[in-house]
Amino acid sequence: METLEAKLGYTFRDRRLLENALTHSSYANENHSPSGSNERLEFLGDSVLGMVTADFLYREHPDLPEGELTRKRAALVREESLVEVADRLDLGAYLKLGRGEDHGGGRQRPSIRADAVEAVLAAVFLDGGLGEAKKIIQRFILDKEEEKAASQDYKTALQEQIQRESGQVLNYRLTGESGPDHAKVFSVAVELNGKTVGQGQGHSKKEAEQLAAKAAMEAIKAE
Prior knowledge:
This protein is mostly helical. The chain folds into 2 domains: 2-151, Ribonuclease III domain (Ribonuclease iii, N-terminal Endonuclease Domain, Chain A), CATH 1.10.1520; 154-222, Double Stranded RNA Binding Domain, CATH 3.30.160. The chain has helices at 2-8, 15-21, 25-31, 39-60, 66-77, 79-89, 99-103, 110-128, 130-151, 154-162, 205-222; strands spanning 170-178, 185-192, 195-202. Strand 2 and strand 3 (195-202) form a beta hairpin. The N and C termini lie far apart (57 Å).
């Protein structure tokens, strides 16, 4: 358990919470575990994860409408993302599974590993409070969002691309807005030396500019 705590970056005051978070229903049923399975913790952890993620996205993306924020949150908390966290923690090795589930490959089952991540987050929340749970969610899940955004910074990539030749002038121009206030769509054109080389649409000006830059890069590459 000490190794798992080191990976988490958190030491439990009540380690029974962590043990419960790692107890699958198959083990609890076979061994009549007094604390039961991790299903109740999973329920709580799902809500903690959703709330922390929603708060992060709300603060980081002030221009995005509700629908886009909802899509981003769903992408961050989906099973695949939680399985990646489980892999980083090697959580499968610590799971308590019933004999049949274990022999059937339960340690590698995505749903079991994803559920265990949520249960562990709940255990941290109950043991150390929201702040400690938030630290772990930030490090293992939300920082990935920032890394992804950085890797898709098409505006910077386009700027670097055109700077290879001197005298190049790049400009982004808002060409239109449509839709109701809660779901606006912005249209942006990116111009190189006064000539439109890419256009993009998005639910924020920033998103439209990034997509326009991406289109410009593809157009320039195709020339």
